[in-house]
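Practice problem: predict the structure.
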Amino acid sequence: MKYTGSVIKYGDNVDTDVIIPARYLNTSDHKELASHCMEDLDKTFVSRVKQGDIITAGQNFGCGSSREHAPIAIKASGVSLVIAKSFARIFYRNAINIGLAIVECPAAAEEISEGDTVEADLDNGIIRNITAGKEYKTAPFPDFVQKIIENGGLMQAIVNEAF
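Answer:
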């Protein structure tokens, strides 16, 4: 799994309430969720995010409630990958379940800047900051996680008999 995109950067403790505010949880429409993604944290996110962009963040990304709407909103907005110092455990599992690629790499999350172009090869555990000419190592996803993400989420992987 390879991803290339421009970086949108956030800090520590980005919680699910700012990823997708509770007032929008009455919809399951992915496009509608994407249209409100990050609006309580970053009013410019929806207007500037492009297909394939990569979010980098600090510690505890996705903390707060266990709502699966948060990774859905991020994925539906066009973000291909989230790189953080660490993730809240339930967010991590929800992201994998819906097919959003996420990876913990503290050095990359710390050093990559807003607007940098990043290339990630998650099969081999390599993240490259093309803009700065730096490379970071991370643990590659296990095969079963790769299959879930490649199939667009756990349910689709089951339907496709990916295991």
